[in-house]
Amino acid sequence: MRDILVTLFVLGVLPLCFRRPFIGLLVFSVLAYMRIQDLTWGFARFQRWSFLVAIVMIAGWVAAREKYPPVRSIRTGLMAFLFVWVGLGHLFAYGDAPVDSGGLIEYGKIIFIALFTTAVVRTREQLRILVWVITMSFAFYGVKDGLHGFLTGGSVHIIRGPGGMIEDNNDFALVMAMTVPMLIHLATSERNARLTRGLKLMVPLTMFTVILTRSRGAFLALLVAISALVWRTRNRLIGLMFGLVAVGAIVAFSPSEFQERMSTIASYEEDGSAMGRIRAWKVALRMVDERPLFGVGFGRFRSSYLDFEPNPTPSQLDGQGTLVAHNSYLQIWAECGTPALVGYLLLFVASFIDIFRLRKAASRRYFASWILSYCTLFEAVLATFLVGSMFLNRAHFDLGYHLHAIVLVFGRVATKEMADEVRYPVRGSGGRGGPLVARKSSGFGTAAPSSPNGFRTTPLIEGA
Predict the structure, then answer these.
(1) DSSP-based three-state secondary structure for 425
(2) What pTM was computed for the model?
(3) N or C of the chain: less Cβ packing under 10 Å?
């Protein structure tokens, strides 16, 4: 039955995906992030639904009379550069192992979807819907697995995610940690009280899901997410108190197996898994030292590992030990070279600068705004991903590149809104809009907090 429902859903929305490519992007996001096909057990599980939806939505975009090209910016240019540079690295790959052409194609798809997002997401209504779809896709598993773990007394140990990019339990745990600030700040940006309460109820269950994975890297990433949220609260003292209570609750009510595993962070020298990662990092640095320009080649870290490990363990000689970088930055550096690493890091620098600029501008106009909430959302999510990536091979993570594209769209949408001095005059400017007071509107428009729909935005009042 599930196979039939998934099949009917995908085939049924294909005409909409063609007529409205934005709808196609939403369906693609559900298939990529929620992985509804992995909730089936039959024929639907193995179909290339994402590829089918992508072809249809691209065809619809090409056929549309009115369409926009991808946004030209430093970030889109960096993503295009990364794909070209990684492709060139294939020509200078190390060793005799077959090149990972399939992996390069998948990487190209990731870059393309990110660029395509900047072409079809043009309004804040579309931005809001896309962020909601992505957040709810992940929150589905956060609530489902968290509730299951709660009902079983925390005895559940999540050893794998639903599939795709989050099949590995560590990757799944990192995404769940990133979902926490997404849920919190979607709640603060919405005016509908029921939506706000529902989103906040999802937060502790999603945090508990992170605990059930027993992932140390994701736990550290979760602490970063909480710290970022505390830092951006209006009253940091109260925020700090809530943060301490949240961490204390995690420690007090988490399973003993989780506490024992987290205790190994302080004594990593005695932990075989941690020491294996440190050895892998040293191997990656040897690769960089010998091949700093193009690296050993995309996806060739594993096949080249033993050539750069002078003292391999017996399990590594058998191909069973740690043969991956376990660090996104060392992964892309060792496989793709120094220019690729610099380009990858500049993506984050550009996104954080954009967020900082938007926060500064919005703070001059609003006491509370969806723009300020989204600034904190993206800031916390990117910081969480940066820390979590220190312990995972996530240099080619779908969501990472998609986030940069979404932040870019957010910057354009928010800047356009704030540039309207008639509706949103700057505090103290005495501009054409007169004194800053809350205005009534409906839907997604700026309105008084009492309005039941749309975003929460409260302008500053002169003299207040």
Answers:
(1) coil
(2) 0.87
(3) N
